[in-house]
C-alpha cells in the first residue's frame, strides 16, 4: 500500500502569502502618524532654522523676523536698498515652510515679534507649539541659544 503524501501544494502556499500581504498592507495603511512625533519634528526644525536665521542676521547685519500662522512659517528681512521685503523664497534653507502637524497653534512670550538681529545679547523668547493634544516649547536665551524643551 502506497502512503498518502502530506503537505501543502504550491497553490495553497501562494494563497496564504497573498492573504498575509494584503493584511499587512491594510494594517500599515490604517496606522496614523504619531502626532507627538510630528510636533517634535516641527519643533526641532524650527530650532535649527532659528539658529540659522540668527547666524545669517549676525553675518549680514540686517534683522530677520520669524513669521507664522496655522499653516506654516517663514522668515523676512528688508531687501537690499530698502526695496520691500525679502521673504527668502529662493533660499534653500530659510524658505517658507508648512507645519507637519495638521493643526498648529503658536504662542510667543513675551507677546511680540520674534526678531533675530546682529546683537549677541537679546531678549529671551519662548515659542509654545501646540497641536491641540500635545505641546512643546522652543526657547531662545538672552545669549541667542535656541533649544527645544
Explain what this protein looks like in three dimensions.
This is Type II secretion system protein H. Pfam families: GspH, N_methyl. Belongs to the GSP H family. One of its GO terms (cellular component) is type II protein secretion system complex. This protein has one domain (35-148): minor pseudopilin epsh fold (3-Layer(bab) Sandwich). The chain contains two helices and nine strands, in the order H-H-E-E-E-E-E-E-E-E-E. The protein has helices at residues 10-30, 35-60; strands at 64-68, 72-78, 85-86, 97-98, 105-109, 114-116, 125-130, 135-140, 146-148. A hairpin with a 4-residue loop joins strand 7 and strand 8 (135-140). The longest helix is centred in the N-terminal third of the chain and has 26 residues, at 35-60. It starts with 9 loop residues before the first helix and ends with a strand. The mean pLDDT is 87.
